[in-house]
Amino acid sequence: MTRFLTALGALAGLTACLVTDAACEDYADYICECHADEYDCNEVRLEVSDPDADQLADCQVELDDLQADDADAGLDCAPAE
User: Fold this and answer.
1) What CA–CA distance (Å, rounded) separates 48 from 21?
2) Residues 6 or more apart from 30 whose CB is under 8 A from it?
3) What is the pLDDT of residues 40-56, one digit of tens each?
4) Which of 74, 55, 11, 23 is closest to 31 using CA atoms?
5) With left for phi above 0 and alpha for psi between -120 and 50, is residue 57 left, alpha or beta?
6) Measured between alpha carbons, how far is 32 from 26 in angstroms, rounded to an integer?
7) What does the alpha-carbon distance between residue 58 and residue 18 come to, in Å, rounded to a whole number?
8) What is the pLDDT of residues 19-41, one digit of tens each?
C-alpha cells in the first residue's frame, strides 16, 4: 500500500509540473504576441525558461490575470500556435 501511495504521489507531482511548465510557455507566448510593445520578449522567455518552484506556481495565475485585463480592455489577441 505504501508503494502505491508513493507512486501515486510521484505521478501527481509529475503531472502538476508538466501542466505548469506549459503555463509558463503559454505566458511567454502571450506576452511576446500580445504585449511586445510593453515587455522585452527575450527577457520574459529567459525568466520562465527554467522556472523555480515559485515561478511554476505563478505562471498560470499571471497569464489568467493578463488575459482577463486584456478582455476587459477590449484587446482580442491569441498567440499563434
Assistant:
1) 9
2) 63, 66, 67, 77, 79
3) 999 999 989 988 877 87
4) 23
5) alpha
6) 10
7) 14
8) 456 889 999 999 999 999 999 99
Global pTM value: 0.69
Residue carrying C-alpha cell 511554476: 56
Percent of the chain at pLDDT > 90 equals 48
Q: State the amino acid at position 57 in one-letter form.
A: A
Contact criterion met (CB below 8 Å) for 60 and 67:
no
Helix (H) or strand (E) holding 13: helix 2-34
